[in-house]
Amino acid sequence: MNIKAVSKALEAYTSCDVADALSKLKVPHGGFLAGLTMWSPKRQDGPTKIVGPAYTVRYVRKNYENEPQPSGHYIDSIPSGSVVFISAPARSINACYGGLMSTRAKYSGAVGTIVDGRLRDLQEHRDLDYPVFARDVGTTAPAETMRVAAINEPVRLNSDDQDAVIHPGDILVGDLNGVVCIPQHLAEKVVELIPSQSEADEKVAADIRNGRPVAESMKEHRSGVKKP
Prior knowledge:
Elements: H1 3-10, H2 15-24, E1 32-33, E2 37-40, E3 50-61, E4 83-87, H3 99-108, E5 112-119, H4 122-127, E6 132-137, E7 146-151, E8 155-156, E9 165-166, E10 171-175, E11 178-182, H5 187-209, H6 214-221
Parallel strand pairs: 3-4, 4-5, 5-6
Antiparallel strand pairs: 1-11, 2-6, 3-7, 3-10, 8-9, 10-11
Helix pairs in contact: 2-5, 5-6
């Protein structure tokens, strides 16, 4: 199964479904990337979901002269169907992603952007009906304090609570529940696991609505869920 087919198959499921499958595969935290929530097209509301391979961009503080300086602008080389993942330096005050970037990303066929930092021009993203997840919002452009140092290279999540790395081509899933990262080599296994566990949960929910005890229903339906 290729990445496009994997992404298409995952569109039917939530980030929670994906995290459950990743937990069975022993991925820490079920692949959840803490602190990243939906800001556009609405703030934590609606059925918006993004699924696609990661196209990563890493910013560094502007005075880091030893870091490389890529040629060209990252926004002009986004592959269609991808999820743009922007990594800003930890605790950055300036935003690293704005409305013009979403305008270009949407034109290029990206399915959404995830900003491990601040975004700005919030209304512009919403007017574009373009999905953006981020840590927070801001007002000021990045040029004063940071610059791009790497494109399509592994980036580390800005978190003191978890050690997570996003690699180019990893499958990113984002919805109201948050953002989950599927390591590329596990993507097909996740697609294989989810249907049986989702069906089991539906049966448990039906039993609960009919008054059956949760423990009893889970024992019946979840014990047969497909194992990795």
